[in-house]
Amino acid sequence: MYKLSLLSILAQLVISTSCFAQDNDSPYSWDWKKDGIWLGAGFGGSVGGLLIGKEKTPYTEEQLNAIDKDDLFVLDRWAAGNYSKSASVASDYPFYGSFAVPFALLFDNTINNETVTVLGLYIESLATTSAIFTLTAGLVDRPRPLVFSEEAPMERRLRKTSKRSFYSGHVAASATAMFFAAKVYSDFHPDSKLRPYFWAGAATVPAAIGYLRLKAGKHYLTDIVLGYTLGALTGYLVPELHKKKEKSLQLYPSAGLTPMGREVNGLAIRYSF
Asked: Which domain of life is it from (predicted)?
């Protein structure tokens, strides 16, 4: 799982740039009151989840021996017993790297003009994912696949974090960051030929992380699928919900000629629905 300190850093970046005005050409709108409440709820949920998680107690050897992998969901049993320290370490590189992708968008001159809004939406997306994940991980006890591995050190199997398999925070957070980047780039550049590459990266990176987390014995298949789905939806929907709506009623000047050849000037009304 990613740390709250990351969210704090991002929050400071938004606050430090809040003096800049939003560009009217931005596809998004930002409301400091409504979005401030949203951010507060996200941060509050994250803190609450962490506090709940701290109350977990580690497995005892007796409890560990009593766990039966046949009690697992049938699609998850094959992963029980997986363990690889190298795969766990390898999963961290694309995980942390994915957080930098939305920042790379700011090198685009068009998107850079909307730094405040884009960073605000990014923090909002991560805060939402963080709150959902930490609360779920804190409330649900599910043994990680490595608990069933004879190769995993007993000290590692007995940690209280070994109860936090459900669901994958690595996959959820990376999916949020990657899908957010693809969505924002697509909204700013709907005709760009680079859009397919952004979406391909958004789909591939969290999936690769999920594979490594499976191999590492950190999560089951259902943990990966749920984390991927929730993260991708958050990364896509937060920007989508902030898109500006086109005005249904528009007034604009109009000029033309009558059948008799006389020039007329006036106002035209357009209503879309």
From this structure: Bacteria
